[in-house]
Amino acid sequence: MRAPARSSGDLLADRRYAWAEAALAEGDAGAAADLAAQVLERAPGYGPAWLLLGRARAADPALRDEAAAAFRAALALDPEDALGARLHLAELGDASEEAISPAYVRALFDGYAGRFERHLVEGLGYCGPALIRAALERLRGPEVRFGRVLDLGCGTGLMGRALCGIAGTLTGIDLSPGMLAEARRTGLYARLQEGDLRDVLSREPSGSADLAVAA
């Protein structure tokens, strides 16, 4: 899957796109829509500009149909929907397809991977992996140990670190290559698998794990 282009390939269009984003962030949806339309005059194949045009038009209830048309144009240029056009269409009441695509989730977490732990642990006080470790020790005793462990949605490896000392062979599964790259840096995983959990698990042999965790 190829990620949506960060640039339209046209310097002036890119500048207007940045101005359109700024206008929308400041609450001026009309100016944002006008600027996004100017971007598309120069770069009609630039999917992010269609998405931005849709977001700007969706701010006005009278322009919902025009917003939906813009989101569909973005989706036509990005069929795997890394941009998240389906989610915006669902917000407008069009639930004809699954709202959140794997490509969108992948792109979202790839962009988030570098700051994921800092935001989740330091910013939000997330302690899910530690709670799971404590629960396992309560259930099985302080000497608990599992030979083969699957870390489902392993992210950057927070759960892997929490399982140190009680996991033998650790396999991590995640949809995001960026997250898996961070998990690989921990050196804790014997195997890392990229893909949708349903697809990856369907290929795992029966009885291939002693423990599966998701945090």
UniProtKB/TrEMBL annotation:
The keyword Disulfide bond does not apply. Coiled coil: none annotated. GO terms for molecular function: methyltransferase activity. Keywords: Methyltransferase, Transferase. CDD domains: AdoMet_MTases (cd02440). InterPro entries: Methyltransf_25, SAM-dependent_MTases_sf, TPR-like_helical_dom_sf. One of its GO terms (biological process) is methylation. Residues 149-214 form the Methyltransferase domain. Pfam families: Methyltransf_25 (PF13649). The keyword Methyltransferase applies. This is Methyltransferase type 12. It comes from Methylobacterium tarhaniae.
